[in-house]
Amino acid sequence: MRIDVVSIFPEYLAPLELSLIGKARQDGLLDLRVHDLREFTTDRHRTVDDTPYGGGAGMVMKPEPWAQALTAVAAERPAEAGKPVLIVPSPAGERFTQATAHQLAEEDQLVFACGRYEGIDERVLEWAADHFTVRPMSLGDYVLNGGEVAVLAMVEAIGRLLPGVVGNPESLVEESHSDGLLEYPVYTKPSSWRDRDVPAVLLSGNHGKIAQWRRHEQYRRTAERRPDLLAEFDAGKLPRADRTAFADLGYDVVDGRLKQRPDA
Ligand code: ADE
């Protein structure tokens, strides 16, 4: 996969040289290039921002440097390859989830446009739609100072799904959000530590019992920390023991969906 990131702080993306993503780049699994937006300015001060029309606090990123930068990135792509995806990190974007990461991991090229200040002149996104599939994306309901930290998170989430990046692909299967639930708790040696014992079932060697215990721990954790996820959970084909586990947590299965009992 090819990834291009445009930013006024190229150094901000340096962590993408480390760990699994850095290794993936060295191994040629990921061709990641960072571009300095200021290289696409034409004035002496390399200006990238200006005051907002209509007034208000803060500055807005000027359209022309963005058009120059994105045109240069698009020009490197073979004409027959079709439009690449342009991701614009923004708290005003659609929510980036594990499902989005899986979807984007199927693309051959992703371009990230890191806004700063109050954002990028809206006309850039309209203009860019002729050359890219434009997707404003938010990490969550909070505000960062710019898109760079969001790009670090999204590139890591997407990059680790590319074939060969994570050594043991099994580890991608049983992790939080892979099945719409939070992950079960994990333990390692010693089996007793500071008067705390690892749950006995995990030492039993009974794989069926262990799998069931882990599933039920996923339910318990998700109900406690992220009950919003349970509303989306497909409870249609749950074994009886799992329905009982949910009943103990205060949830009944109604038409294949989990419904919290009013008294729970
Ligand atoms: N830029 C600023 N805040 C952001 C957020 N929450 N998600 C993605 N990009 C952002």
UniProtKB/TrEMBL annotation:
* EC number from the UniProt entry: 2.1.1.228
**Ranges of residues in domain tRNA methyltransferase TRMD/TRM10-type:** 1-231
Question: InterPro entries under this entry?
Answer: Alpha/beta_knot_MTases (IPR029028), tRNA_m1G_MeTrfase_C_sf (IPR023148), tRNA_m1G_MeTrfase_TrmD (IPR002649), tRNA_m1G_MTases_N (IPR029026), tRNA_MeTrfase_TRMD/TRM10 (IPR016009)
Q: Does the keyword Cytoplasm apply?
A: yes
The family this protein is said to belong to:
Belongs to the RNA methyltransferase TrmD family.
Q: What is annotated about its quaternary structure and interactions?
A: Homodimer.
Stated name of the protein: tRNA (guanine-N(1)-)-methyltransferase
